[in-house]
């Protein structure tokens, strides 16, 4: 990078950032991280040149800055985005460095009256390292409004670039003057887009920093008592009373955390509930069930083999006559009621 001008450093890092947003490489890929580090080094060198040359002054208005220098206001914004793309190193330091870059970019835009009034509240809250106490519905509406603003700015950017290409093809003096105005509008549109992106990044950094602090607190507790193992389902710090986390609400009405909290892991319990059969599984065998019913007196015992039919005594004439009459009546009944007579299927 030695011998490169400020414009060359800026253009190369800008092209690298755009290529990283479109690449198919994973963020953890060494080739991806190599491009990130190269672009960060280029932007850091460009940032140092801007400071050394004193290109910007806090008492300058937007109209006092030419279009060629105006684009260098984007250096801290690009630097913050690239820092967040890093996967190597301590996450807390990455978040702090990116946050500092976004704050510097937004503060500079505020000095030159490039930031809108509705974004000042978010900027002031991020500078004070606190969340805005506004209802969730209002937060959602503001987020939708920022999304629409960014979409409109991107559409305007495409139109301006098409207009610039058309103007360059004419190659007249008036076209050259028009090109300067178009290039200036392109840079202003880019700055507006990155103002919105920086505010979203700061909000995400604030939420992730809370998680990082919780993880670091848990690690400190484990380091203080290295002899004790922490299971997945037992992550509540030891040494606290049984009412830890119950003496007051975890979140305020606005969704702000009021105290540190730990999300316990009940993965196995949830897995058992999800992958269990749809029916209730038996808890005892049939023999065990019958034994239990018998002990409770729900089964009547008794009975036995059917008694054998008593033979008629041939010498007892009355008994013989009674048996004969019985058999005759049974034969008459069978003749009057043939087999299958009561079955409707046999009637056709």
UniProtKB/TrEMBL annotation:
The protein's name in its UniProt record: TAP42-like protein
Q: Which residue stretches does the UniProt record annotate as biased composition, category Basic and acidic residues?
A: 323-337
Please note every region of biased composition (Acidic residues): 311-321
**UniProt GO MF annotations:** protein phosphatase 2A binding
Q: Got a GO cellular component term for this one?
A: cytosol
Region of interest (Disordered), residue spans: 225-251, 299-348
Q: Which GO terms describe its biological process?
A: regulation of dephosphorylation; regulation of signal transduction
A Pfam family hit: TAP42
């Amino acid at each position: 990078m030695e011998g490169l001008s400020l414009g060359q450093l800026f253009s190369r890092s800008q092209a690298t950032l755009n290529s990283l947003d479109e690449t198919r490489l994973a963020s953890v890929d060494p080739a991806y991280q190599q491009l990130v580090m190269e672009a960060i080094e280029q932007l850091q060198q460009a940032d140092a040149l801007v400071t050394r040359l004193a290109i910007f002054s806090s008492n300058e208005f937007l109209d006092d800055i030419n279009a060629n220098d105006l684009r260098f206001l984007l250096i801290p914004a690009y630097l913050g985005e690239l820092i967040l793309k890093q996967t190597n190193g301590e996450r807390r330091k990455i978040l702090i460095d990116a946050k500092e870059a976004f704050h510097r970019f937004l503060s500079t835009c505020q000095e030159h009256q490039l930031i809108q009034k509705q974004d000042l509240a978010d900027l002031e809250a991020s500078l004070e390292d606190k969340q805005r106490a506004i209802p969730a519905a209002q937060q959602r509406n503001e987020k939708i409004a920022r999304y629409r603003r960014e979409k409109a700015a991107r559409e305007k950017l495409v139109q301006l670039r098409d207009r610039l290409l058309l103007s360059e093809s004419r190659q007249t003096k008036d076209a050259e003057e028009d090109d300067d105005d178009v290039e200036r509008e392109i840079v202003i549109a880019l700055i507006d887009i990155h103002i919105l992106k920086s505010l979203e990044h700061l909000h995400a950094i604030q939420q992730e920093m809370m998680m990082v602090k919780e993880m670091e607190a848990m690690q400190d507790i484990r380091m203080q008592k290295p002899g004790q193992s922490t299971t997945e389902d037992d992550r509540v710090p030891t040494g606290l009373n049984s009412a830890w986390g119950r003496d007051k609400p975890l979140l305020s009405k606005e969704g702000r955390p009021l105290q540190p909290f730990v999300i316990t892991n009940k993965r196995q319990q949830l897995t058992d509930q999800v992958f269990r059969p749809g029916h209730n599984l038996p808890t005892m065998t049939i023999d065990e069930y019958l034994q239990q019913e018998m002990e409770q007196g729900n089964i009547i015992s008794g009975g036995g083999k059917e008694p054998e039919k008593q033979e008629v005594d041939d010498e007892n004439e009355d008994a013989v006559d009674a048996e004969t009459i019985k058999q005759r009546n049974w034969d008459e009944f069978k003749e009057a009621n043939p087999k299958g007579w009561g079955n409707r299927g046999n009637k056709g």
